[in-house]
Each structure stands twice: as structure tokens, then as C-alpha cells.
Amino acid sequence: MTLYDSVLDKDGVQLTVDDAVATVTLTNPAQRNAQSPALWRALTEAGRALPGSVRVVVLRGEGKSFSAGLDRQAFTPEGFDGEPSFLDMARGPESELDATIAEYQEAFTWWRRNDIVSVAAVQGHAIGAGFQLALACDLRIVAEDVQFAMRETSLGLVPDLTGTHPLVNLVGYARALEICATGRFVYAEEAERTGLANLVVPAGELDAAARDLAGALLAAPRDAVVETKALLSGAVSRGYEEQRIAERAAQGRRLRDLAGITD
Q: For the segment 168-205, what is each residue's pLDDT rounded down to a tens digit?
């Protein structure tokens, strides 16, 4: 691939690749990168289109807002052109509604794959689906003007795009409930203090900070990073003894690999 090779550019999503680093950009700043089913399908396609050489994926949004959340057109009777409206889906069979939501969620699941490390570079508004998209990534760098909010409950809904699990893991049950139930804003200082953000930088330095972090993540051998990510992500569901066993197994694999021993 050539430098900054464009792999995908459709429905408000652009995927470019520079050797081991891929960048996924939300490209509809005029609408504050509002999300739609078409955008979700494009995000899913971007994940499937990643070349095997990619180790780090940076997610960013053009303009002043990372993503202001779901396009409210979804809740109008006409919905989006060529798409069933959310109201029509709600009137259909429950199994079909469940399958449709599962399809939408695919746009948010691939960011946690063990073979990549994903970094969200977040500025301005990250509301609802925008907040959940940032939470889908492994790491988050935020600008000083960031405004996270989970507004689904104000619409009579719940967060359903995979954001609840990482939110609880990062900030704990009580704070997660309070954030979701009130729909309040979480600003940069609180985001960094509670673990939502790994780093806070001035807005003008956000892209550079994401590039620097990507470079740092590439410094270690790929297989060691893959094993470490799997070890840490699984720790949430393991007990202490189970995690000790997992550590030994992972280290054994690394040592055998370094020694050139194949099973």
C-alpha cells in the first residue's frame, strides 16, 4: 500500500492506511458527524477492510464535534431515504428489531479486536451514539473542549450501541448510572480523573497527540501487544487465580515463540 492509501470513503466514513496505522474519520462536520444506519454499515465495512498490516486504528471526527450522536431524522415517520424508520421497526416483529439492533452494534464491536489497538481522538461534542463510539475504542485522547453525554434516557431509550459495558468498567456502576440517568455532560477534567480519557490536550494538538500515541504503541513487538491486550481485556471476567493461570499461559507462548519453538 502507498502512504495514506484510501481504502474506503462512503456515507460519512473515510478509512485511510499508512503502513501499520489506519485512520477512520467521520467526514460530515456540517451535521456534527451525526450517525445513521448507513454510517454504521460503513464503519462495519471499515473494520472488515483493514489490511493485516494494521496494528493501530485512530478514530477521529472532522470539524468542531467528534459526533453529536444519532441523527434525529431516525425518529421521524419518514426516517432516512431507503431505510425503515425506527418507528416502523418498533411496530414490526421483536425478533427482527433485535436482529437490526445487533447489526447496528457491529459498527461498535470490532474496535476491541485483539490484533489492533484503537485510539479515539475526541473533540467537542460526543453525545449518545458519539459517546458510545468513543467508548468502543481501547484508548481515548480528548481535547480540552470535549463534552461527553449519554442522552438516550432523555428520549425514553437506553444506550444500546455497546457503550454500557466499557462505561461501567471505566467509571464504576454508580457513576455510570448517574451519567446515563441524568444525561449530564462530562467534561475533560472529569473524563481524565475518572479514566474515561487517557490524556487531555489542547484542541489544536489532538491529531498530533493521537499520532504520537500510535507511534508509542508500535514500539513494542506486535505479538507481545496482542497477548497483553487479550490478557488485560479478559481480566475483567476472571478471578485472581484464573488471571494468574492466564498470565502463565500467555508468557509461555511468548517465551516459546522467542525461542523459536513450535508446538
A: 999 999 999 999 999 999 999 999 999 999 999 999 99
184: DSSP letter: -
Contacts 24+ apart (CB under 8 A), 31-34: 31/68, 31/71, 32/63, 32/64, 32/65, 32/67, 32/68, 32/124, 32/125, 33/61, 33/62, 33/63, 33/65, 33/66, 33/67, 33/68, 33/130, 34/67, 34/68, 34/69, 34/70, 34/71, 34/72
Residue appearing with cell numbers 441524568: 182
Kindly report the pTM of this predicted structure: 0.93
Element (H, E) at 5: strand 5-10
The residues that bridge with 228 in the sheet, in sequence order, are none
Q: Cα(163)–Cα(179) distance, rounded to whole angstroms? A: 12
Question: In DSSP terms, which residues pair with 5 in a beta bridge?
Answer: 17
Cβ contact 60:25 at 8 Å: yes
C-alpha to C-alpha distance for 45 and 152, rounded to whole angstroms: 25
Count CB-CB contacts under 10 A for residue 191: 23
